[in-house]
Amino acid sequence: MGEHRGDTRARIQAVALELFAEQGYEKTSLREIAERLNVTKAALYYHFKTKEDIVVSLFDDQLGRLDELITWGREQPATQETRQELVRRYADQLYASGPGLMRFAHENQGTMRDLAVGEKLKSRMKGLRELLIDPKAPLTDQLKSAMAPFTLNIAHFAFDDYDITDEERRAAGIAVALELVSGSPHTDA
Amino acid sequence: MGEHRGDTRARIQAVALELFAEQGYEKTSLREIAERLNVTKAALYYHFKTKEDIVVSLFDDQLGRLDELITWGREQPATQETRQELVRRYADQLYASGPGLMRFAHENQGTMRDLAVGEKLKSRMKGLRELLIDPKAPLTDQLKSAMAPFTLNIAHFAFDDYDITDEERRAAGIAVALELVSGSPHTDA
DNA sequence: GTCTATAGTGTGATAGAC
DNA sequence: GTCTATCACACTATAGAC
User: Is the whole-model pTM more than 0.85?
Assistant: First the structure.
């Protein structure tokens, strides 16, 4: 015992993310988080102002990286190559953040709406979507492009009953996402 | 006033579905539902044994129809035509149920896990997925097939800032879903 | 940096009158 | 079939000691 020193804040984040992702933000109480860490609720309030503040801290880095990606994308020409590179870089960010955040966002979409950080994330995803879509393409092609980011998420949770590695899931997700943003081989009308 | 007679149960379902879909199952209290209907919480408990019981009643019909669809699918040959017809029939069921249920399931995935009805729905979706997938196809093609049901959902909520009708969204969703289950034009290895 | 203690509110659910 | 009243409990958050 007593093996932890100044890492309490990080440990709170880790446990909170795990529980939020596993059983939802609303259903996870501060008492539960505190018990899992063998501290008290009041200790949590020393490190974070509110419950929502824990979530904000969780998404902080990710949001910053998303901003950078979108800024980069807006400086590039709106070509198919740019869109494919956007998918690759977005996938890198997603997987670098670990499965926890992905799953949190995936399972708490309803909750995220009223959290301020949820609005931020939503606006970033819209920015990304606008970069991935060719507004002149047919609606079906636009839909396919819009689905590319979802694909990366779904790929990670689908086939949980298959005997394959996460790396294989990841590769499949990226491959399909790239195909989705590449448009059908259609002739110009 | 006094315009309602024996429709209280149905009115509870309607309001509950709306609120659950809008702000989440956990965040919606029975008090809120009751107030919206100008009845008391106790009145709710006359019609439904528990809060979860309201959700169960909401998904009851839908689950039955899904069972029929899967039973039908299992009787058909595992061809591309069958898979496409499955997508069409599933889409019909989805849209016939109205947007509320779709949105509920979409925004409360985390919550659905511990609800008994969530487990049921999940097993049905797995059954449907197995019918849509060709287990001999490359993993990327399997992923595309697995995404077809998601597509129908996403199509309905994406482009909420576009000036298009729900019917156009629906048509685009079905078109893309059909393409996803049809596999790439790949040669047999 | 972490504790005890508690305020203050809201929840799902029940009992029993009408 | 709907009501009033209430129970028992959990929650977020705060105050103040150590």
Answer: yes
